[in-house]
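Work Package 4 report. The design task specified in the project plan requires that, given a folded chain encoded as structure tokens, an amino acid be chosen for each position. We show below one input record used in the internal validation round.
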């Protein structure tokens, strides 16, 4: 019998390999080093204190709203493709794997292979349908169930919209939100209410500014001018839609309170404060939301994304860019998008009136960031705590003074430690220096001894040479004496032989 090709051993090894390359989300990677404070896991918003999502986390979360291909292909958004060849092709693939998303099916190896075999026009048509299916979510009740957990993370306006969506999810349990909003009954109703509300708001606005103008005729020239200027400023705020309702209200009330304070006619000032209470501060309503979703043909996913994005960790320029704030590190904190939008470019002393909790939550955020820096888990942020503390202090008129003592102490200890180790190195080098100097001294001493010995030897040599010279002279003298006497002896011998 043949052994199975994929035996258990092979399978286990294969799984191990796959696991090694699988990216991990949702839990802390031990020792991971971050280079951007927005990526710190579970960093809480510096304003509301809610948990924030990293941009990766947002994408992952959004993916969980994607519907399987079986339900997606029933969605009315795709009605206009229903009779095409491309749609039927996708339908066939979906029948084989109904639980997978259309995107998963199209991107699978098998799907890709089948698509490549088709003619280019057909491929294009399939891709187009694919893009539409990306925008289709699970049905409304499932969306509500998933988002419910994050209800408190939504801004006031979105909470109101969420209530209405909850209602519709019960009324149309089999549909998605984009489908529900496009139901003729729903779309027409909200378009009508939105129009009526908008008309009512603009009528109210006209009426109130008329009352203010009428009242100004009783004022002094100076006060009249001041009121006209205040009216213009208030109108700009109401019309630009930059701030949320409660902010608009506070800003406009402040303006008229300042006018009332400076106005010489106190009765008129008080009257004006009463009149402006009726201004339409409301900047958005569920009707407006639904109407714009229908008008802009928003997909389910982009509707859901509006809620999910509220929780994304975003950079907040503490000193607003519009006020000359820089893109630099020490001007940046992390806020959830909800709070970031609410703050807009408002000065912090004003914004803090609505969010006194920010004092505590920003401190918590800086505490966590400091912990990451101190454990070497956040790169290149060494000067951040000091920089942001100074920036926060000056831009909140000393209302928020961050406590970074723990970090300063850490820096101090670190500096002390490196001083200590430098000192140790210096001590070691000093010892080596002394040692080397000692050795030179020893060699010098040895050299001295040798030199004096040399001097003695040289003297001895000179004496020996002198003696040699004397001996040489004596020897030479003796030698010539011998020579002389030898020749005398020879002469005598010659004479003796001649006479014999
Ligand atoms: Zn927040």
């Amino acid at each position: 019998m043949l052994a199975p090709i994929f035996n258990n051993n092979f399978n286990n090894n294969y799984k191990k390999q796959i696991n090694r390359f699988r990216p991990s989300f949702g839990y802390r990677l031990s020792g991971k080093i971050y280079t951007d404070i927005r990526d710190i896991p579970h960093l809480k918003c510096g304003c509301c204190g809610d948990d924030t999502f990293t941009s990766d986390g947002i994408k992952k979360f959004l993916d969980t709203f994607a519907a399987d291909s079986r339900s997606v292909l029933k969605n009315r958004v795709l009605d206009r493709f229903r009779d095409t060849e491309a749609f039927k092709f996708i339908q066939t693939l979906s029948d084989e794997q109904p639980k997978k998303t259309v995107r998963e099916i199209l991107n699978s190896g098998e799907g890709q292979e089948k698509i490549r075999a088709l003619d280019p026009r057909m491929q294009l048509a399939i891709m187009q349908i694919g893009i539409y299916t990306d925008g289709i979510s699970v049905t409304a009740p499932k969306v509500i169930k998933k988002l419910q957990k994050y209800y408190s993370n939504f801004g006031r306006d979105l909470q109101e919209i969420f209530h209405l969506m909850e209602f519709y999810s019960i009324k149309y349990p089999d549909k998605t939100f984009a489908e529900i909003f496009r139901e003729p009954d729903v779309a027409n109703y909200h378009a009508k209410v939105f129009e009526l509300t908008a008309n009512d708001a603009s009528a109210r606005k006209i009426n109130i500014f008329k009352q203010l103008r009428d009242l100004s005729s009783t004022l002094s020239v100076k006060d009249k001018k001041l009121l006209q200027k205040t009216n213009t400023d208030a109108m700009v705020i109401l019309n630009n839609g930059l701030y949320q309702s409660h902010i608009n209200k506070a800003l406009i009330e402040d303006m008229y309170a300042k006018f009332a304070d400076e106005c010489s006619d106190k009765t008129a000032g008080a009257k004006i404060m009463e009149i402006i209470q009726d201004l339409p501060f409301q900047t958005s309503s569920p009707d407006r939301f639904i109407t714009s979703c229908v008008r802009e043909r928003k997909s389910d996913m982009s509707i859901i994304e509006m809620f999910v994005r509220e929780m994304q960790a975003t950079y907040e320029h503490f000193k607003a860019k519009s006020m000359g704030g820089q893109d630099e590190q020490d001007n940046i904190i992390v806020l959830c998008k909800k709070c970031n939008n609410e703050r807009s470019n408002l000065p912090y002393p004003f914004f803090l009136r609505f969010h006194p909790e920010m004092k505590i939550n920003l401190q918590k955020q800086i505490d966590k960031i400091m912990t990451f820096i101190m454990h070497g888990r956040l790169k290149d942020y060494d000067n951040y705590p000091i920089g942001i503390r100074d920036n926060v202090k000056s831009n909140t008129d000393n209302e928020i003074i961050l406590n970074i003592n723990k970090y300063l102490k850490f820096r101090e200890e670190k500096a002390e430690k490196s001083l200590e180790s430098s000192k140790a190195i210096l001590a070691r080098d000093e010892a080596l220096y002394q040692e080397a100097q000692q050795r030179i001294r020893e060699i010098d001493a040895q050299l001295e001894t040798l030199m004096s010995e040399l001097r003695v030897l040289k003297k001895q040599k000179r004496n020996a040479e002198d003696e040699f010279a004397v001996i040489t002279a004596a020897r030479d003298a003796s030698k010539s004496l011998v020579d002389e006497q030898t020749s005398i002896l020879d002469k005598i011998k010659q004479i003796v032989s001649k006479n014999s």
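Residues 405-499 form the longest helix (95 residues). Validation will be extended to a larger panel in the next phase.
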